[in-house]
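Figure 2 data, in text form.
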Amino acid sequence: MENRLERFHPLVPFLYYGGSISIFLLFLHPVFLPLGFILILIINYMQDRLNGIRTWLFLMLTTVVLIMVMNPLFNERGRHLLFEIANHKITLEAVIYGGMNALSIVGVMAVFISYNLIMTPNKLLFLFAKFLPQFAVLLMLTLRFIPLMRRRLEEIMMVQQSKGLSVIHGPWSAKLKNGMLYVQALLTYSLEEAIQTADSIKARGYGVGHRTSYEYFKIRNADSTAIIFLSILLLTIVFARLSGYGFLSIYPVMESWQLAWQDMVTLMFYLLFLSFPLLVEIGEMLRWRLSK
């Protein structure tokens, strides 16, 4: 089923996803981050029933566990002692700080999963190819790097396992040796395809002269309204963050979690920005029902 966000001019989803990533990194607060992450999960469920999240679930959970464990182990700062392990203090501040950073990172990952569903390479090239052709290609290749490498590794694993080379079964020495063979094949495969891609781009004259777009996008009234709406929200949110709202200071003394009225207003704009795809879908449903 087509998502309403896909019908907008590419600048609209690009502004939304760029702003979402920025505010997930800026607003380190134990109230803001969980609510924002829940909204992004709802948006992912609406777009593909969480299939993308399930694909990256292991990596996301591993990231959360590593950060939640590593930060208290390497950081003893804090006044609220939870317990000690071999004379090493585990403090509440270190656990909370690690949890906020972990939630910020997995939130960005969830935003990128949604981004890959909406922003196709054609849309990205349309936005930047005329002005920054090299940057457009580099950005597109960077964003597709991780999922592409993952698919390639799965293909290599299937071929190698058919030959009896596995990183799951057998002694550790054999696993390590087979794993190095996997990486070697992956790098060789990627470099060969990179050379072919570069030759293809050069042969087509990319970046030499004026570039025409195969798929043309025109800004309509709905696009202009969405751009203005998102820009105002994003500027307001960033200004509030620069003013010190929506951020919990952990060190040297952890601040109170209680939100002031300025934080509540900032939270409202924060959630309103992240829920833009939901608002668009709800508006489309209401318009469809009223037209019947």
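Caption note: Residues 172-203 form the longest helix (32 residues).
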